[in-house]
From TrEMBL:
Belongs to the DMRL synthase family. One of its GO terms (molecular function) is 6,7-dimethyl-8-ribityllumazine synthase activity. Its EC number is 2.5.1.78. Keywords: Riboflavin biosynthesis, Transferase. Pathway: Cofactor biosynthesis; riboflavin biosynthesis. This is 6,7-dimethyl-8-ribityllumazine synthase. Pfam families: DMRL_synthase.
Amino acid sequence: MLFITRCPTVLILSSRYNTFISDLTLDIVTRSIKGVFAYDIHWYYGIFELEWLINQSSSRYHAIIVLGSSIKHNTNHYKWIARPCFQSLINYPIVNLVFVSETSEHAWSRAINLNSTSVLYPVASLIGSTMLVLV
């Protein structure tokens, strides 16, 4: 089946946890896709609602980008959050920009090193795998 669209729409799901990282990555992602794709932004509070949001939104959007960050700090609780998050995300065709980091500095470094190429190519690839995009 071939779909033809003139303006692909992307959903950006951004975490409300570690918002300093999410806001930075959201800014980079929106600047990267602005003018190329239409986009909507939805915020999520926890990983357990993330799979439900993706399920509900997958038919309305051409691609989904998930933003978030889990930082270890001094405990290992991040393993209990990161594992179910990645297990739920792997079941969907999405662009995964959820960072799992040992320190806040490492999370900042990963977020700052995002550029438009590292965002645009995966999104375009995801959209191009299922439809023909007319410019």
